[in-house]
Design brief:
Beta-Lactamase, 41% helix
């Protein structure tokens, strides 16, 4: 119990007719030539007698039992306050004495406590503080008189307490309030006003009954009892741990207990956070298990439809989520259509998807997920400011409390998004969101792998031809200004979805072209590989080229040229390609681009026998012999089992001749492999 409970006390000037005790009037002798502060003089529960001199004070004190506390100035007309204090202590050893002075010092304060002053207070303190000190001193003296515990001992206990403590008798009556300096911030009213009150004056009946039972149980067992309870304070709800123990002595013939109230609000909050953390960790482990099971189910999936169905089914059938759906890829100005739905009727989720698609790009969650590659979390459907009222209405009809949209992105290619509805509030925290985003990345990887596999094994493909006239940037503009021709010779994929483009240029010098590429915003890095009078070959890294955009859209670029200001690109894609999405991707580099041709083409299937036959036709007899001898002699091992000179000696040729044959054979071998691979993709 703490002083906060006294907020619930009635008017303390009289009994209320239901057996509640009235507050006892405090009788104060004020010794000073000056008037007492109003806070003391005007207090309703104070009976104040004022005298100007020490002699007058001694006369008043001769009447036994007429004073509960003496408040005295140090500098009196006929004596000093310390001399008066010594007289009081001789005749009234337990009478509270507060030295309240405007002419004191640290020395005076020290001497006052040495002689037996109950308290010392300079007059620059306000009258309310004086009133509080007087009430505190009187309450402590009351318990001292009734229990036999000395005033000094009570003050030691009070100052030592980090908590608030009470002395309660067997009837639940407050006999004393003890509070140390650290508990001052918890006060709502003067704690001494509780003295004389009962538990039922401070608490609702049910809670007071429970506390009184605790007092009785403490007295019966003779041990320490514990209870936790909540109290309303000026800073909000606070939790306390109450510990009760028998006082050991009777007061006015009644047994009593000491009740220590420790503020455990922070401890309970820490325990709550710890419990939530444990619950979150358990949930996260189970969600990770769900995602792992989902990934295992994806192994061997042959089609994109199968991948999407498995993911949605696994998520929707779990205890954590209501339903799941996959849609996309999303294209501007087009309505997104769910391609897979589980846990809910397709028609119902289509209405919600339509409502989101109808919003502008700046407000459209699909645009943010796909365009910015960011997840969108609706933490509370009822109170979210990122959804429209129409979306909120539809989501509430579906029983949704939380939701998330996760991008399905592999590298820089987006394959749509995954939508999940949480089964309860509090879902989609940071770690859970990270797990779902990882799932989205792996699903996108699986879709990409299936697409590439299908394209590789399919005997047909969709060929897309793009044309751009007079582009404002890139090689198209350079070819117009320098009247030259660019042609793509080959592509090499690097880590991080970077591409190296090998571009042959005709009709311009390498130096002139280098100057223009230094100025081009679409060229990140370049290197001159070879140059002659007619043609130069450059190795170029460009993150914004049209070729790079087509590759990121999931196609295979078979040719690309820029000639006299006209750009032509031809790419092949799988039969299920979203052509609109590929066009939009290409137009991020060339906004003026037109799709001039879309047709299904046959793709040759090459067997191992065809590869060997093609290679045999390209190699000369001497090249084949040199290649075979070097291979079987361990020339290509590391470290080499035979040197070039040893292989040359075995063949009866010179070392330069052997290296000439090997270089030619290796070039034809690699070239044949790459040509067949490109034509088969």
């Amino acid at each position: 119990m703490t002083s906060e409970q006294s907020r619930q006390l009635p008017d303390e000037s009289a009994a209320d007719g239901r057996g509640r005790s009235a507050v006892r009037t405090v009788r104060i002798l004020y010794v000073d030539a000056e008037e007492p502060p109003p806070a003391l003089a005007d207090a309703e529960e104070v009976s104040l007698a004022t005298v100007p001199t020490a002699a007058a004070a001694r006369e008043v004190l001769t009447a036994e039992g007429t004073v509960d506390c003496v408040v005295s100035e140090y500098a009196l007309p006929d004596d000093d306050g310390l001399a008066l204090l010594e007289t009081v202590r001789d005749d009234h050893p337990n009478l509270p004495f507060v030295l309240y002075t405007g002419s004191g010092s640290e020395t005076v304060a020290s001497e006052a406590f040495g002689v037996g002053a109950t308290d010392y207070l300079p007059k620059d303190a306000d009258g309310e503080t004086l009133r509080e000190r007087v009430d505190r001193a009187v309450a402590a003296a009351s318990v001292e008189t009734e229990s036999g515990v000395s005033g000094d001992r009570l003050r030691e206990l009070t100052n030592a307490f980090p908590d608030v403590a009470f002395v309660l008798d067997e009837n639940g009556r407050y006999l004393e309030v003890l509070s140390g300096p650290s508990s001052k911030d918890l006060r709502t009213v003067q704690q001494e006003q509780l003295v004389g009150k009962r538990l039922h004056d401070a608490f609702p009946a049910e809670q007071a009954d429970s506390f009184l039972n605790l007092v009785h149980r403490t007295l019966e067992t003779g041990g320490v009892e514990t209870v936790e309870y909540e109290v309303e304070t000026e800073t909000g709800e606070r939790w306390y741990e109450g510990r009760t123990a028998p006082l050991g002595d009777t007061i006015e013939g009644r047994e009593a207990v000491v009740w220590v109230a420790r503020d455990v609000t922070e401890r309970r909050e820490s325990e709550r956070r710890l419990a939530e953390s444990r619950d979150e960790l358990t949930r996260l482990n189970r969600i990770n298990g769900l995602i792992n099971d989902t990934l295992q189910s994806l192994v061997g999936s042959a089609t994109r439809d199968e991948i999407e169905r498995i993911v949605c089914d696994e998520l929707a059938s779990s205890e954590f989520y209501q339903f799941a759906w996959i849609g996309g890829p999303w294209v501007k100005n087009e309505r997104m259509t769910p391609s897979a739905v589980a846990g809910i009727e397709r028609e119902r989720i289509e209405r919600l998807v339509e409502a989101t698609s109808a919003r502008t790009d700046a407000e459209n969650a699909f645009s943010r997920v796909v365009g910015d590659d960011e997840s969108v979390v609706v933490a509370d459907v009822a109170d979210s400011d990122i959804i429209s009222e129409r979306e909120r209405e539809l989501m509430e009809e579906l029983g949704m409390s939380t939701a998330v949209l996760v991008p399905l992105t592999y590298g820089t290619t987006n394959y749509g998004l995954l939508g999940v509805s949480g089964a309860c509030t509090g879902t989609f925290g940071d770690r859970e969101l990270t797990a779902l985003e990882t799932l989205g990345e792996i699903v996108a990887f699986a879709i990409n792998a299936v697409k590439n596999r299908n394209l590789l094994l399919s005997d047909t493909a969709v060929e897309l031809e793009f044309r751009v006239e007079n582009p404002a940037r890139g090689f198209g503009r350079i070819s117009s200004e320098l009247d030259c021709r660019f042609s793509l010779e080959g592509l090499v994929g690097l880590s991080g979805d970077r591409l190296l483009e090998y571009v042959a240029v005709e009709g311009v010098s390498a130096d002139a072209l280098a100057d223009r590429m230094d100025e081009s915003p679409t060229v990140d890095e370049y290197r001159l590989v070879t140059a002659d009078d007619e043609t130069c070959l450059f190795e170029i890294h460009s993150a914004q080229s049209g070729v790079n955009q087509l590759v990121e859209a999931g196609t295979v670029v078979t040719s690309a040229t820029a000639d006299g200001g006209v750009v032509r690109c031809v790419a092949e894609a799988s039969s299920d390609v979203n052509v609109r999405g590929v066009v939009e991707e290409f137009r991020t580099t060339y906004p003026e681009a037109e799709l001039v041709s879309k047709q299904e083409v046959d793709r040759p299937i090459h067997t191992t026998q065809e590869f060997r036959q093609t290679l045999a036709e390209n190699l000369t007899e001497k090249q084949r012999t040199a290649l075979q001898a070097a291979y079987f002699a361990g020339y290509y091992e590391y470290p080499r089992e035979s040197t070039g000179a040893e292989v040359a000696e075995s063949l009866g040729v010179s070392s330069p001749t052997l290296h000439q044959h090997l270089q030619a054979a290796q070039r034809k071998l690699v070239g044949t492999f790459l040509d067949l691979q490109t034509s088969g993709e």
